[in-house]
Design a protein that fits this description.
Blueprint (H helix, E strand, L loop, with lengths): L10 E4 L7 H7 L4 E6 L3 H4 L2 H11 L3 E5 L8 H14 L3 E6 L1 H13 L22 E5 L11 E5 L6 E5 L7 E4 L9 H19 L7 H23 L4 H15 L12 H13 L3 H19 L3 H13 L6 H19 L15 H9 L16 H9 L4
Parallel strand pairs: 1-8, 2-3, 2-4, 4-5, 5-8
Antiparallel strand pairs: 6-7
This protein binds 5,6-dihydroxy-NADP and zinc ion.
Length: 394
């Protein structure tokens, strides 16, 4: 087990109607002027925005609104938010939505307290050391951004998608009402399930030894996610399934299931090239990338075989005695799960072609501050990443 220091300061409020207490929470955490940030309109259609604004009014809190955060959110929206925060003297940012809105809120929160260009924090060596407080009202169980120190933003023009991470970006509070996810299109629910699963897998693929506690936590969360996927597909208004998925997504990425081990994150770094280039949703991109990355590990790295065989047996019910056979059957079981969710699993399915691979691999390993390799499990260079992309072809 690795040494660690772990602190999660975020206050979680979970359950029915919990968004009605938003104003009280903002006031409790000393917010006086609030930027209410949201996406393309789902929160207006669902009535969430109106309920939150009413709650801010009841808490006598002044607010301004910024609408229009796009999925795979853009730096230009962050700049717009920073100007608004400065002009209006905002002291608290409230994100209504999913990972894209929350990540934009984090970027605005850091950028507003930084004299330079906020993009300095993405893909470079710099990390934010100050940020305005943010609160979240989550509407999709997926990214775990409601409990993570991370923010992922895409630069307009170059379309480079890069990440920053700092404890100052951890939300002050996150309101988790599973009812709010009932309006999600089935495809977005499935993308979210894939993403939360992937956050566990990126931790499971590790060289750290004697990590039985977090292995079992990860396996338990994976089993819960797989179990809840069917009920929610059959009945999108199944509160209990929605609730379990929402808490699983938060647990998957809040740090607890893996503070004691080294992580991988190769699939995420490779996926960013797909979501930025083809506009694919992050979870759908991961469904394409994950089987290819795991297959590559089994092809080239002996230590991956027992680890992925353990995953196959404990989570995917594989009972093959031979480790390599079991591990490969586990990869196929994961691919079949993504297919059952309606996720794409080939590069072609999102418009990719063989000819795109050299550029995708170069962008993954070199552009925007990358050092030439990605991945914490194996250092994957451009050649290895190109091979992985080729495993995604039909
Ligand atoms: O924009 P609106 O109209 O709100 O529609 C959104 C959006 O189109 C819609 N939606 C969300 N909640 C809804 C809803 N529609 C109906 N009813 C609801 N209740 O869903 C679409 C996708 O929203 P988005 O916020 O993009 O989804 P998600 O939460 O999956 O976030 C994805 C982003 O998070 C990043 C990803 O890279 C991607 O950019 N990630 C952030 C992480 C973090 N900060 O820790 C970790 C992740 O690995 C991930 O990289
Ligand atoms: Zn993710």
């Amino acid at each position: 087990m690795e040494d660690f220091s772990y602190r999660l300061p975020t206050h979680f409020v979970f359950g029915h109607g919990s968004e009605r207490g938003t104003g009280r929470l903002v006031a409790h955490y000393s917010g006086t002027k609030v930027l209410v940030l949201f996406g393309g309109g789902s929160v207006e259609r669902s009535g969430l925005l109106a309920r939150v604004l009413d709650s801010l009014d009841r808490a006598l809190l002044d607010h301004v609104e910024l609408k229009g955060v796009k999925p795979n959110p853009l730096l230009s929206t962050v700049y717009e938010g920073i100007s608004l925060v400065r002009d209006e003297r905002v002291d608290f940012i409230l994100a209504l939505g999913g990972g894209s809105v929350i990540d934009t809120a984090k970027a605005i929160a850091a950028g507003a307290r930084y004299p330079g260009d906020v993009w300095d924090f993405y893909g470079g060596d710099r990390t934010p050391d100050r940020a305005l407080p943010i609160g979240c009202v989550l509407t999709i169980a997926a990214s775990g951004s409601e409990a993570s120190p991370d923010s992922v933003i895409t630069q307009d023009g170059s379309m480079l998608k890069r990440e920053t991470s700092s404890s100052v970006l951890l939300p002050t509070f996150s309101i988790l009402n599973p009812e709010l996810t009932e309006t999600l299109p089935a495809y977005q629910t499935a993308c979210g399930i894939t993403d939360m699963y992937s956050h566990l897998l990126e931790r499971y693929v590790s060289r750290s030894s004697a990590v039985e506690v977090s292995d079992r936590m990860i396996e338990g969360l994976m089993l819960a996610i797989v179990d809840e996927a069917s009920p929610v597909a059959e009945d999108p208004r199944d509160y209990d399934a929605r609730a379990n998925l929402m808490w699983a997504a938060t647990m998957a990425h809040c740090g607890i299931a893996g503070v004691d081990r080294k992580h991988d994150w190769a699939s995420h770094d490779i996926e960013y090239a797909l979501s930025s280039r083809y506009g694919v949703a992050h979870g759908a991109g991961l469904a394409i990338v994950i089987p290819a990355v795991l297959t590559y590990y089994l092809d080239v790295e002996a230590a991956a075989v027992p680890r992925l065989a353990q995953l196959a047996r404990r989570v995917w019910g594989v009972d093959e005695a031979d480790d390599m056979t079991a591990a490969r059957a586990g990869v196929e079981a994961q691919r079949a799960f993504f297919v059952s969710l309606g996720m794409p699993t080939t590069l072609e399915a999102v418009g990719g072609k063989l000819e795109d691979i050299p550029e995708l691999a170069h962008e993954t390993c070199h552009a925007g501050g990358r050092s030439g390799t990605v991945g914490g499990y194996l250092p994957l260079d451009e050649h290895a990443v190109a091979r992985i992309f080729s495993l995604m072809l039909l």
